[in-house]
Amino acid sequence: MDSENYIQIEVYCQQTQTPMEFIDDLLEFEMIEVQQIENKIYIEPQYIVEIERIYRLREELGINMEGIDTLNHMIKKINRLEQELKLLRDRLTIYEH
Amino acid sequence: MEFIDYYKILEIDKKASQADIKKAYRKLARKLHPDLNPNDKTAQEKFQRVNEANEVLSDPEKRKKYDQYGKDWEHADAFEEAKRNQRSSSGGNRRTYSSSTGSQEDFSDFFESMFGGAGGGFSGGGRQRSAQFKGQDLNATLKLNLLDILEDQKQTLDLGSKKIRITIPAGVEDGQTIKISGYGGKGINGGPKGDLYLTFEINNNTNFQRVKNDLYKNESISLYDAILGSSIEVETLTGKVKLKVKPETQNDTKVKLKGKGMPVYKKKGVHGDLYITYKITTPTKLSEKEKELFKQLSELR
Questions:
Q1: Nearest 5°: CA angle at B25, between B96 and A55?
Q2: Intervals of chain B under pLDDT 70
Q3: Which residues of chain B does A92 touch, with a Cβ-Cβ cutoff of 8 Å?
Q4: How far is CA B192 from CA A18, A35, A43, B134, B163, in A?
């Protein structure tokens, strides 16, 4: 990834009025990764979606970080199961014809 | 355009207090929030309606207007009046749930005719977050026939504000989503642009069943071809091929035609396989002679 695309965390927090402590929480729970370039901390744009999603879950639904971490695992599991279900459904059509 | 019963949507009584509304809204939001239902369109649509119901009922001004004119929404005069009055009303201290899918702009016609659109005067007040950064992500669905994806396909997408040309790789899966970076909404406060998520809906307009890259098909063969062996023609996606049926072939025998399946996504020249299952049809309406011959055959065993 081109380093020009990195977003400085402080700028992000300031522009979006996101508390810096929230970013610290995300890092503590290993939900995002950051890059350090010359004493400044940057995030890759791909993590913005994740930050905003987790912020919504926390602020709008009142779920704490532990709950979100658990949810993330469950959502991943559901995705996996949905894929498996689709595969099984497709396979079933072979026998229905 | 239909009347929408916001009380019913929030599953509350017409006499519900503000606290009841808030409670009902939060309860439904925990169930239907798009971040918790990423692949569930029904939940997302329901969520939009719940959001809309809350926009109206949690604002005493709007609730009053809704209670007063709601049922008679067809009476344009009353609506015009309502709309005029609405301009001066301000948004209270409400909070709206949001999502990355742009649901907030997508209020019903009923809502818009009564309150003049989601972008109207009231939306400024209590929105959850004053500054979003990344532009809004867009979601779109592209419907294609199975026969359309046998080769890479160039297609122009009309996004309303602009058109983009994309190449759809051969062999794309039904339900597969691809991300087209930077084609979503504009970034806010210097943030990056949103992305476009394109989901493919592949309609299988063939007699083949598709499982990932492989195709399956049943082929009927006569009892005599199965017993004595034969040469038959079967259809594939790329034309007919000849198959040798071995003598004494059993029912449900599977034959694999290598490379006659679907093209493999992003692997040029590589194809899945086609599986043909033989279904033996036994003769019916036998003549007396045939019956006699079968009897003789069975006695030989």
A1: 45
A2: 70-106, 117-132
A3: none
A4: 16, 18, 12, 5, 20
- Name the pairing type of β-strands A40-43 and A7-8: antiparallel
- Please give the biggest Cα pair distance in chain B: 98
**Residue contact A91–B211, C-beta within 8 A:** yes
- Compare CB distances from A15 to B26, B133, B195 and report the shortest one's residue: B133
Contacts of B216 in chain A (CB under 8 A): 94
Size of interface A-B (CB pairs under 8 A): 81
B176 CA: distance to closest CA in chain A (Å): 10
Instruction: Provide the ipTM.
Output: 0.82
Question: Sheet of B138-145: strands edge to edge?
Answer: B138-145, B196-203, B177-180
Q: A16 to chain B, minimum CA–CA distance in Å?
A: 5
Residue type present at position B8: K
Residue B89 distance to chain A (closest CA, Å)? 25
A chain contacts of residue B33, beta-carbon cutoff 8 Å: 56-57, 60-61
Helix (H, G, I), strand (E, B) or coil at B55: helix
| Cα within 13 Å of Cα(A20), Cβ side | 7
Number of Cα atoms under 13 Å in the Cβ half of residue B219: 28
Q: Which residues contact B117 (CB under 8 A, 6 or more apart)?
A: B107
Chain A hits for B218, Cβ within 8 Å: 97
Location of structure tokens 């609405």: B86
pLDDT tens digits, B67-77: 887 666 556 55
CA distance A32 to A67: 16
pTM summary value: 0.71
Q: What is the pLDDT of residues B262-292, one digit of tens each?
A: 999 999 999 999 999 999 999 999 999 999 9
